[in-house]
Amino acid sequence: MDRRHFSKKMAWALGATTLLPNCSQAQPEEKDTLRASAKEAAPAGLIKPKRLRKGDTIALITPGSFIPDRALEKAVSNVKRLGFKVKLGKHIRALRGFNAGTDEQRLEDLHSMFEDPSIDGIWCARGGYGCTRLLPMIDYDLIKSNPKVLLGYSDITALHNAFYQKCGLVTFHGPVASSTMTPYATAHFRRALMEENPVQIIKPAGANKQIKDVLYQPKTIRGGKVRGALMGGNLSLLAAMAGTDFAIDPTDKLIFLEDIEEKPYSVDRMLTQLRQSDNLAGAAGFALGIFADCVPEPEDRSLTLLETVQDRLYPLGKPTAYGLSWGHISNQATLPVGIQAELDADNVQLKLLERGVS
Asked: What is the pLDDT of residue 5?
C-alpha cells in the first residue's frame, strides 16, 4: 500500500484533529534508564480503572511489534465500530527491525497515553515481541497515578503482569485492536469493560466447539472447583519472565494460560521451567485457553499437546481445565487480570466474581 495514500486515508477516518505520525526507521539509544530494579510483592489492594463508555477516546499503541498498514486500518475501524473516538500513538508508524520503533519511542507512547487526561483507555493494536524490553524502564508511579483500561494479549502479557505487581492495576487480557471482533469477542469486551454487572460466566464459545480440531474442544484435565486471583497470559511470555524482577508469583492464584504454534515438547519445557522457577505447584488452579496449532510434526515422536499438559499439570493436584475461549483465536473472552474468579473445571467454565472496572 502507498504510505502517503494510507496516511491521508487514516487522517480522514480519524478526523482532522488527529495527526498521523510518519513511519520512520528509528535508531537505538545507547543506554537504558532503569526504573525498577527490585522485585516487589503483589499489592494487597487493587486499582480498578473507570469503565469505558461510548464516546470515550481510545488510544492505539504498539508496545511490541510493528503493525502493518492494513492491520492498523482494521484496528481503527474496530475502535470506531464500538462507539469510541481514536487517538494514535505518536510513534505508531515507527519501525526498527521487528519492533515498532526503539524502546524509547514505544515507552514514550505508553507513558504519554497514560498521562494524557483526554485518553480514557489504551488498546494495544497488536502484540508480537518487544514488551519485555520495556519493563525495567516503565515509570510505574506514573501508571499508578493515572489508572486506565489497558487491553491486549500475547506479548501484552508482560505489561499485564508487571502492572499488577508494581501498581496493583487491573488490566485486561483480551483481543488486540486489530483482532477480528466476532459477536462473542464483542459481547465479552462490552461485559468486561463497559457494563456494570459484576458477575460474568465465561464458557467456551459455541463456534469454537464446532471446529473439529481437538485443540478447540473443552476438556477437564483434573476436576474440582477453586477460587483465586486471576493471573497469567501467554505461556511463552510467562516463561521468558521467569527469574526476572517481573516473574509472576502463582501462589494461591488462578492461573490462565494460552499459546500458539509451539510444539508439545516446547510447551513441556516452558511448564517445567515455571514449575521449577516460579512455584507453579502453589497455584490454586489452572484455566487453559486454546493452544492453537500446538502440534508435533507428523514424523515426530511426541506426546500430544493435551497429553503434555496433563503430564505437567495433573500431578500438581489442582483443578485444571482446557479449551476456554482465550488465546490466538477469534472468539476470545476479555479477562480482568488480578480480580477474584472461580474455575469450575468439571464444567470447563470460569466465573468472574467481581468487576474489573470501577
From this structure: 44
Q: Which of these is catalytic: 65, 325, 328, 342?
A: 328
Domain count, the chain: 2
pLDDT of residue 43: 52
Please report the pLDDT score of residue 22 as a whole number: 42
195 an active-site residue?
A: no
268 and 168 both lie in a single domain: no
Catalytic residue among 65, 154, 179, 236: 154
Provide, rounded to the nearest whole percent, the portion of the chain with pLDDT above 70: 87
Band of pLDDT at residue 144, cut at 50, 70 and 90: very high
Reply yes or no on whether 7 is catalytic: no
Does one domain contain both 289 and 319?
Answer: yes
Which comes out higher in pLDDT, residue 99 or 33?
99
Active site residue 258: yes
The pLDDT, as a whole number, for residue 243 is 92
Enclosing domain of residue 156:
3-28+42-179
pTM: 0.89
Catalytic residue among 258, 262, 325, 342: 258
181 vs 223: CA distance, rounded Å: 32
According to the model, what pLDDT value does residue 105 have? 98
- Nearest Cα residue to 242 out of 157, 184, 185, 299: 157
